[in-house]
Queue: 2 jobs
Job 1
Amino acid sequence: MTVYELDRPEILARKEGLLGDAVRPTCRRVGVPVDLATADWGEALADAGFRAADGPTCWLVEGLNQYLPETDVLALLDRISALSAPGSRLLTDFVARAFLTAPEAHPLLRLMEGWGAPWHYGTDDPEALLAERGWRAEVRSVAEVGAAMGRPLPGGRELSGWLVEAVR
Ligand SMILES: C[S@@+](CC[C@H](N)C(=O)[O-])C[C@H]1O[C@@H](n2cnc3c(N)ncnc32)[C@H](O)[C@@H]1O
């Protein structure tokens, strides 16, 4: 298995500098430095050796969507979909739309903005978003999953966001 890790150049460089040789992946890992919001990262991924036609891909897009404006999230999903052979899987998460304006969320949203990483995007219908792009999605609220693990969240289902596992 090859894992392609796509992130901003400065983040990959910092990670590699910190980990050095201390941690060795048990698979082949290829860092692909890109800006997922603006770049045509499909080309960079192909240059790194990725071939969609080789078979199904498992995409893990965790903790990213909320940082991008809506147009960039849609473009990201379009690109992922175009690069996914039948049987590919997508594991991702979304912030609930209501969270972005909820008074309870203000302290966190202000903190993120202060760190230069403002949250832009939320949705309440990840299933439709993915169905439009040929994915069959199973969506669970973070509140449900948390409760099942004995970790209830304040704010309830409508503020908690979504964990998504989809198959193409
Ligand atoms: C909350 S972290 C999630 C970490 C991720 N699940 C992982 O295992 O590395 C958000 C990640 O998204 C990356 N990110 C945010 N905006 C990005 C962009 N425009 N292009 C590439 N990466 C971006 C950040 O650099 C950060 O590593």
Note: The longest strand covers residues 2-7.
Job 2
Amino acid sequence: MTQSFQVGDLEVKGFSDGILKTSIDFVVGMDRAQSEGLVGGTDNGALFIPVNNFLFEKDGKIIMIDAGAGNTMQPTLGKLPGNLRAAGIDPSAIDYIVITHIHPDHANGLVDDAGAAIYPNAEILVHAQEFDFWMAESDGATPVKVRNTRARNRINMKPYMERVRRMRDGDEVLGCTPMLAPGHSPGHTVWRIGTGRKAFVAWGDLVHFSAIQISHPQTAVTYDLDPDMARQSRLRMLDMVANEKLAVAGAHVNEPGFGYLSRKGSGYSFEPAA
Ligand SMILES: [Zn+2]
């Protein structure tokens, strides 16, 4: 069943791409006993996190946030197109895809196994800083992780190249405004969507392990290309979200993936939307 929440005049629906198996070993700067305790224990460190996508309509257009992993990562992922169809939404009906960052679990699902667009009519909204970094040429000094993701991102973006809108902070399309929150990736973006206080943020991977990083926002993960910068972005953005009482749609926040932050101790707690 599709879950939805209301933010002002927007009805935001959550669509799962599936479950990503990861590891508590990827937590940086917290001892193992504490991180195990926060997630309620693991079997040999295995941690299972959701890959959430969101969709809403505005002015007769259908806008989706991120595109899932496709068939490229784990068999438990790549469920997004099927879940859209099950809800009566043909992927060809999607007009815009807002991208938080161009990592495999958010962008590899843009294309099918043959490299054809799964969303043939969608325009991509992405921060220029993120797009330019991943579309740049690699050289001998480029870390392997970056080189591989760049190579894959050429495949992801190829059928969309004529309809990519490179945006910067302050730009707006249908109420969607990017706010640079770098660190996890160089142009990682928190999108503010809606009007005034009747807005929500799609915060991408600002928080990767929600059971740990919302209550302990100083804690980074090895997925962050620059963990210190990611930490600063997280602290700054969580503060803003809590101050403004904005609703949150989190790419890897445990079910239902959306809700509100409140301050608790030196961190925050997450109240799921009803
Ligand atoms: Zn992610």
Note: Residues 81 and 254 are 21 Å apart (CA to CA).
